[in-house]
Design goal:
Blueprint (H helix, E strand, L loop, with lengths): L9 H7 L4 H8 L3 H8 L7 H12 L3 H6 L4
Amino acid sequence: MVHVPLTIDVAAIRKRTDKAQTAFAESIGVPVGTLQQWESRRRQPRGAALVLLALLERNPRLVEETLGQAA
């Protein structure tokens, strides 16, 4: 079971993946503007996006390992 926090530091998670905002947003399937709002803390991710980010916090290479995307 994965503990899903109520708030999450999206910028820190993205930086751990070594991806630019555009590449990270594309890899998790959200618009860049949404990612920017999460990173600036104007909005918080919810639902499936929050779960995915919590998983990425534990394993920054999860998307590449699971979907076979290039780093």
